[in-house]
Amino acid sequence: MGSHRALPAPALVLVAVGSVQFGAAMAATLLPAIGVAGSVALRLGIAALILLAVARPQLRGRSRRDWLIVSAYAACLGVMNLVFYGALLRLPIGVAVTIEFTGPLALAAITSRRRLDLLAVVTAGAGVVLVSGALDTSWADLDLLGLGLALAAGACWAGYILTSARTGARFAGLDGIAIAMLLSAAVVTPIGILGAGADLLQGEVLAKGLGIALLSSVVPYSLELIALRTMRANVFGILLSVEPAAAAIAGLIVLDQTLAPLRLVGMALVVLASVVVLGGGRTAGVPEG
């Protein structure tokens, strides 16, 4: 990790954003083999082991309030991953991430008093309609379940941001996320084992699981933690706004997924709205779980 000192904070955030989306694209290749629960179990389980080894969080001496808060954080983390991976099974990654991104965007707008942010939310809503394909796809051909799962992931992301802030106030460094990962993995892993069974132990599956855990959790959390020590919240928010575009690029490179021009326009509207809202906020957003 010594090389991060040579990179400015914005570059660290952009690397983290790309890491998350390429991790999601890799997860999309694993989902058909072991399912949603199995994929989430591998990601959370491996990430938890790595973060526990690195952070070595203090478990003893925690108050009941501490455990309630970190448990809520863990619940948001686990459910967010399950519904997002469910969306990835049904939607192109660029579409899923764009719709999911409305969660933190709406949260930031709700807590803002700027009229411009309300206009930005309306713009983002129009973008989501375009991205969903509602204007150029018949109702019968729309994957309503996939769209609903992506929206649910966005709601969970908003909850994740709120619980993350409270967890960060009570747990130092990576302690909070390490404990939350452990708690989420403890719940999801048995479900994943029931669904995927021995397939979870295949060499290729484990290798992909390790890659997903590193790209989607360990690397971005570490880089963003470093970057946020010196970066203003509004700058972080602007950089975070490129998540949908990064997802589209990852989908093209890893999954050979292309998006129709109308969906690209919708994605651009969501990114623009995110820059306005998150770039003008006082608090930084939180990376996707």
From TrEMBL:
<feature type="domain" description="EamA">
    <location>
        <begin position="145"/>
        <end position="278"/>
    </location>
</feature>
<feature type="transmembrane region" description="Helical">
    <location>
        <begin position="144"/>
        <end position="162"/>
    </location>
</feature>
<feature type="transmembrane region" description="Helical">
    <location>
        <begin position="93"/>
        <end position="111"/>
    </location>
</feature>
<feature type="transmembrane region" description="Helical">
    <location>
        <begin position="174"/>
        <end position="193"/>
    </location>
</feature>
<dbReference type="Pfam" id="PF00892">
    <property type="entry name" value="EamA"/>
</dbReference>
<dbReference type="GO" id="GO:0016020">
    <property type="term" value="C:membrane"/>
</dbReference>
<keyword id="KW-0472">Membrane</keyword>
<feature type="transmembrane region" description="Helical">
    <location>
        <begin position="205"/>
        <end position="223"/>
    </location>
</feature>
<dbReference type="InterPro" id="IPR037185">
    <property type="entry name" value="EmrE-like"/>
</dbReference>
<feature type="transmembrane region" description="Helical">
    <location>
        <begin position="118"/>
        <end position="138"/>
    </location>
</feature>
<comment type="similarity">
    <text>Belongs to the EamA transporter family.</text>
</comment>
<dbReference type="InterPro" id="IPR000620">
    <property type="entry name" value="EamA_dom"/>
</dbReference>
<keyword id="KW-0812">Transmembrane</keyword>
<feature type="transmembrane region" description="Helical">
    <location>
        <begin position="37"/>
        <end position="55"/>
    </location>
</feature>
<keyword id="KW-1133">Transmembrane helix</keyword>
<feature type="transmembrane region" description="Helical">
    <location>
        <begin position="261"/>
        <end position="281"/>
    </location>
</feature>
<feature type="transmembrane region" description="Helical">
    <location>
        <begin position="235"/>
        <end position="255"/>
    </location>
</feature>
<protein>
    <submittedName>
        <fullName>Membrane protein</fullName>
    </submittedName>
</protein>
<feature type="transmembrane region" description="Helical">
    <location>
        <begin position="67"/>
        <end position="87"/>
    </location>
</feature>
